Each structure stands twice: as C-alpha cells, then as structure tokens.
User: What shape does this take?
Amino acid sequence: MRLPNLLATRRGRLAAFFSLYITEGIPLGFAATAVATQLRRQGVGPAEIGAFVGSFYLPWAFKWAFGPFIDVFASDRLGRRRGWIIGTQLLMALTLMSTVMLKLPEQLALFTLILLLHNSFGAMQDVAIDALAVNTLHEDERGLANGLMFAGASIGQAVGGSGVLFLSGFTGFQPTFFFVAGAILCVTLFVVLPMREAAGPPRIVAAGVSRAVAAGREMRHFAVESFRSFLGTRGAFAGLAFSLLPAGAMCMGLALQSNLAVELGLNDDQVAWLGLWSMIVQASFMVIGGQLSDKLGRRRTLAVYLALMSPPVVYMMLELQKYGWVMPVDTTVANRPAAPAALVMALWIATLTYGVAQGLMYGTRSAIMMDVTNPAVAATQFTAYMALMNLAIAYSSIWQGIAAEALGYPTTLLIDAIAGLLCIALIPWMKSVRGNAPDGGGPWRARLTAGVLGLACLAWLPYRLGQSALGAAAPIFETLFNVVFIGSALFLLAGAAVLQGPGRALTKLGVWLAPVLLLMYGRRWVDALAAAFGHAARPNPVASTADIVLFVVPLLAGVLLLSFVARRWHELRPEPA
Assistant: This one.
C-alpha cells in the first residue's frame, strides 16, 4: 500500500507537523522524566540531576548555528529539509540504542555525553522541521498548526517520559531505549519517507566558490541580519531580554518535580501517570491559550498566563513547609520518612494546575515572538529567540537542582515563583514590528548591550578570587557566568561582522576572542585535568596556565566590549528611504 504525501493537503500538513513535533518532545521527556526518575531512585542528588537535564537543552540553545549549514548543504533529490529530517532521526535512534549496555549511575558521564549528542541531532531536526513548516504551511493554517505542533511536542514528552516508565515495569529500564528509538523511527517510516517536498528556488553559488565558503558567507549574513533585527526596534530588543528570562515559574515542569515525586514515594507507574495527565492537560490548553490570545489580545493574555504559573508553585511550597519536607531525602536508605497522603495529593494538584497555566502560555508566547520578529529575516530571528528560551530552561534546571540541595525545596520554589514574574515587565514593550521600519534606537541599544556584557565579564575577576567564600552558592554564579560568556562571544562575532571603518582591527580581535570565551564553559574540567597532568612535588603547570587563561580571557573580553560603548554604531541606523 502506497502511503500518502501528507504535505499535499491541509489536514495532511497539520497531521505531519503534529507528528514531527512528537519526535522533538520524545528526547526531552525521556531525559527530564524517565531518566531523571531512575537516577533519583538510584540515589543521584538533585544538583547532579538538574545539571544532567539542563545539559540537554544546551544544543537547543545553539540550534540557530545549524541553520546556514542546513540551508547550504542539502539534497535536492531527498528534499532540502526532508533529507535533513530523515538523517537526523536515524542518528537520534542510533545514538539512543548505543546506550543500552551502559550501567547507571556508574557510567553517568558517558551516558550524558551520548544523550547530549542525541539531543544535538534533535535540535538539527527542529531547525529543518521549522524551515519546512515556513515553506509549506499556508498563511491561514499557521495558527492552528502552531498550537498542534506544541501539543505534539507535549505528547512526545509523555511518550518519552510516562511511556518509558510504564514500560520499564515490564521490561526493565534499559530495554525501553529500543521503544523510544522505535517511536522516532515510526514517524520516519510512516510520515517523513512518504513526503514529497516541493522544490525550492534554484540555489545560486558564485563560480569557483565551494559549499564550505558559501556556508561561511551565509553564517556571516546571519550574524549581520540577526544583530540588526534584534537591536533595530524596541519590541525586538525587549523580546531578546524576554527570551533570556525564565518564562514564568519553571520548577514544576523540570527535574525538580520528578525528584519530588520519587522522594514522596511514588513508584514508576505513579510517576508515569502524573506525567501523562500533566502532558494531556498541557497539550489541550496550548490550543485554547492560542485561540484566546487571538481574540483577547496577545500581550494581555500572555501576562495573565505567566502570572498563573506561580500560584501552583507557591501552593506546593506551602504544603512542603507545612509537612516539614524541606531538604532532599536520600532515596536509597531503607528507613527514609514516609510522605503523608495529603502531600502526595498536593503534588498532583500543583502539577496539573501548573500544566494548565504552562499550556496556556506556550502557544501565546510563540505567537508574540513572531509579532516582534522582522519579517525580512523571520526564520533567522525567530529561531534565535526560541534558542535563547531553551538556554533559559537549561540554566533554570541547573540552578534549581543546586538550590534544592543548598537551601531546600520550599525556598527554591519561592525563588522560582518570584523570578518567573520578572519577564512580565517586558511585555508592554513587545509590540508588533510588522510593517515598521527600524526606530533609530539600534546604536544606543548596541552600546547598552556592550556595556552590560563588558561589566559582567570584568565581574568574573573578583568572583574568581573570592569563589571559595561563596560555598554552595558558587555553582549558581557559575551558571550565570556561562550565560555571560556565551552572550559576549555572540556579541563580539556579530559586532565584528557589522562594524566598519576606524577601529576595524580592534573589532577583528573579537573574532579570535569569541571561540575562547565559548571554551570558558570547559573550566569545570580544569581541576581534573590539572590533577591528571600535574605533579605534587612541584608547581602544577596545567593549573597555573589554566588560572592565567581564566583571568586573561574575561579581562580582554570585558575591555573590548567596553570599547564598543564608545563606538557610534552608524551601521545600525536606518537607511534613508
């Protein structure tokens, strides 16, 4: 029987992109729910689990970098987007099945590395799917398709999370990896392979220019256009800050919720049912929230939805405080305290009501980011906003795990409930940019951004000297500086591409400094490397060299960024009509 080409009809397109987004949700649900639950049951602490889950969102935070490669290196025979989707789904299944023989938690580091690679292929797939959607969906079906796509991602998370936990009761945990890989391959076989992607416009490459050079030029074009789009209007600049902040309280949708479920005595089936119902509720309200925002106004409804995400978190905080469940409990001891039935019921209530609020928020947030996106570079700018939101999820998961161990669950929940409200202050500025030219504020926004990032890089120096005095809070600052170094690297790269004229040599220094700033993320392994190559009887050359680099690089970046404050940034001014 010949399978239909789903892209040929309206219903087929809606079904196709719903199914494709299921494969995007499966890896995240598998990591955040199924694996996090098993690790907590085996005695791994909340901080380590938070870092484990947070690391899987990092590829999604940098997925914009895959765009030019997917655009340039594509097969016209397989389909420019379809070929990438097929390839990445096969690699997702392959990497997942390669972890079957690993032992947890003993080989957690290798397991994390392989799943990080697995999610990198998932992020590549996401870029290809979004590009296919932009070129395939008709304008009058994009709203409904957007809601269905996010609903599909939620169902995918339920399959990868709850589905795996249900199945593990019959097969054990490791064999469920074949189930997750099989679910991805089913979409490949029954949805992607029968697709017939419409041929795009002919690609024009200058004579004598290789694909690699064309990709490099495309990356530079991305940097320039994105930089101008982010800073060109007030709404787009506010959207940048909005994307970097947590979108409402997040802890009831990340690993902290799974940790609590295990500690309160829920078995795998009960955790699975909790996750399944939460995803069903969330998926339903994603569509409802988008429809209400169309009728009642995007900014007004989004502010309400974000505010509604905090009450379930505060309620859970009060219940944990009421029953004295403050610090994480060792799940491996035989005589650990039993949770009251009322506290377990409170977890159910908080999780499901949180699912309602988060579902309402998701579709509306994506729509408002489209509103502030420059239509001329829609795919580039919108993908970057989504990537920054994933970075916010990553650092939120990390700091919450650290805070739970250092401060206890109630305090962590309270901080999250308050921090999640901060982004609401930016919503009034996020007006649609459709049809509007740049407002002339690009130069001062560039100077402001350079100043903030420069001062943040210089703040690393006193932090590094006094790091030991911060105790358990130090890892939280480490996470914040990760964001600073990544943002500084991207700003230096984009600034070097945009700025012309006097001082050009100085801006080129940023191109060389940016990759080193990105490598600052590897500072966590410096001590282990020094111990491996150093010698106790004499000064450790590895440690000494690393300390110098860890001081010099942020110092140079801070000074260079502050020098950008003095530039006039004429290149960002609107061109005369």
Observations:
- Residues 442-572 form one domain.
- The mean pLDDT is 80.
- The first helix runs from residue 10 to 41.
